[in-house]
Q: What sequence folds into this?
């Protein structure tokens, strides 16, 4: 087997709007705290080549992924199936997903981004050399708490103690996976996998950085000069960091503490990783149209009639959160109604995609996946090591579990509109079925 790593700087210029934390916040960046990177791991075995990519970004619109694939096909002959692009979901980077109101995309940045990502991939292919992969699964605790089922926020001085643990750790990831690649005595790079919404900072912070995952990966890279580290986001849809939404000064302090905790887990994984044989490489993807709630044109018009008056009152202003959130709904509803008027389907397809590296299966979708869905997939998957990743190749909002979907609210009903989509009918069962079918194909 041959492996190559590379990375390329994808930090936007200061002043672009940052993505996340609510509707139309006008959160313009003021400084670069940590640079953002596109990191690539190229693999080759028996003439087959494939590419794993990790981005310090909130997500990618599928159009960005498709452009990267076009470049890699033209320049290196890679097939679209052979490229898997994972985003960390940082809320302190530019808007690169299809999010209404959650940050204004910067056209020059978005237009140049695919080439910058592809440059890292092409350099990784140039660096292919014979190498050995190793794997470890190690404890990773004191980072996340389940925001759907463990809602009691705790003071910063409590959660930043080394012995802090959430009330319900079983509803979070408590281990992380680490893959390492070595060529003889040379440490080429590593891949770490963990599921937790990466955000530590708050809506008041305007510094560019990769949140705890990006900061931690930068730390480990500095300890291994020349090595490149990829972070794969797991099931983070219902898991927050323990220190999210604190005031700015406290947030920036907590960012380094949480990043340090994750970096310590990755260090343990690098030290404990054991070699494993890679008998084959494989990759696959499918276009899937996930079932939506049966809301037709009449329902959409009813909702539009509910939200437009909030913006058209004589005393309305753009300042209140309610008005700005109404604008998200109004924009989404108008887009959906325009599609219906043009005879287009209201439910767009998205991708599920996977990659096999010997015993390791990476199964991904554009969803922010809930932990219960990941647990069901891992329990039924065919291989010994299954990594269920979110924010892969696309960005389509939350995949809530059955309980959260039945309850409704932010994850089940609001976020789909942020992505100009109808709410999903049964993302839990649909996504589980699709990713297990992909796993079977890869196996």
A:
């Amino acid at each position: 087997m041959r492996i190559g790593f590379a990375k390329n700087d994808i930090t936007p210029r200061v002043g672009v709007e940052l993505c996340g934390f609510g509707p139309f916040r006008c959160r313009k960046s003021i400084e670069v705290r940590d640079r953002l990177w596109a990191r690539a791991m190229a693999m080759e075995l028996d003439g087959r080549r494939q590419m794993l990519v990790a981005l310090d970004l909130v997500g990618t619109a599928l159009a960005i992924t498709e452009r990267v694939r076009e470049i890699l096909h033209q320049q290196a002959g890679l097939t679209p199936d052979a490229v898997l692009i994972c985003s960390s979901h940082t809320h302190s980077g530019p808007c690169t997903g299809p999010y209404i109101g959650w940050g204004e995309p910067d056209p020059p940045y978005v237009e140049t981004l695919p080439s910058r990502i592809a440059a890292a991939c092409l350099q990784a292919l140039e660096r292919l050399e014979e190498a050995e992969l190793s794997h470890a699964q190690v404890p990773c605790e004191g980072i996340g708490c389940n925001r759907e089922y463990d809602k009691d926020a705790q003071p910063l001085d409590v959660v930043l103690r080394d012995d802090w643990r959430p009330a319900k750790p079983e509803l979070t990831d408590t281990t992380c996976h680490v893959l390492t690649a070595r060529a003889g005595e040379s440490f080429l790079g590593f891949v770490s996998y963990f599921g937790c919404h990466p955000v530590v900072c708050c809506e008041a912070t305007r510094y560019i950085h990769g949140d705890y995952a990006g900061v931690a990966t930068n730390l480990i890279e500095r300890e291994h000069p020349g090595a490149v580290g990829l972070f794969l986001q797991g099931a983070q849809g219902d898991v927050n960091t323990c220190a999210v939404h604190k005031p700015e000064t406290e947030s920036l302090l907590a960012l380094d503490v949480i990043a340090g905790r994750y970096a310590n887990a990755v260090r343990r994984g690098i030290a404990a990783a054991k070699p494993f044989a890679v008998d084959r490489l494989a990759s696959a993807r499918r276009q899937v149209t996930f079932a939506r709630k049966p809301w037709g044109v009449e329902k959409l018009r009813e909702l539009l009639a509910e939200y437009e008056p909030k913006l058209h009152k004589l005393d309305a202003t753009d300042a209140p959160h309610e008005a700005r959130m109404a604008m998200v709904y109004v924009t989404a509803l108008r887009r959906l109604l325009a599609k219906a008027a043009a005879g287009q389907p209201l439910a767009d397809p998205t991708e599920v995609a996977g990659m096999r590296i010997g015993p390791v299966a990476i199964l991904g979708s554009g969803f922010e996946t809930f932990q219960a869905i990941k647990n069901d997939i891992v329990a039924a998957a065919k291989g010994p090591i299954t990594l269920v990743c979110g924010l892969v190749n696309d960005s389509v909002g939350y995949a809530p579990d059955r309980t959260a979907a039945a309850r409704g609210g932010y994850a089940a009903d609001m976020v789909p509109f942020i992505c100009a989509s109808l709410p999903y009918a049964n993302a839990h069962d649909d996504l589980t079925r699709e990713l297990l079918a992909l796993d079977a194909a890869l196996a």
